[in-house]
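User: For my dataset I need records formatted as: sequence, then structure tokens, nothing else. Please produce one.
Assistant:
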Amino acid sequence: MKSQGVPLVEDICAAGEVANGCGYAVRTVHDGVRSTSADFLTKLGNGVDILLNTIIDKVNLTAKGESLVASSVDVLSKDKERRTIKARREIVISGGMSFILEEFVS
């Protein structure tokens, strides 16, 4: 594409001065099979819990030696149920907002 006049953009995911261009897309391919994070999560089985429509109210930290580690999270579900979820190994928080917060908590 570069030979056709399309500019090379080193970080295709970053917003910059160039609105279009070509670059390297990050992919996971092994033995000719593409995989995504969804593939990884669905193959974990009982090893991971995915909570949708949930607000993380607080990440609770516990001292471990001279460091602090996340040991649990306080959550609020869309039906206004509050609970604390304890981690066995690790806590991964990933989120976005596709609704109005006022509707969720009011």
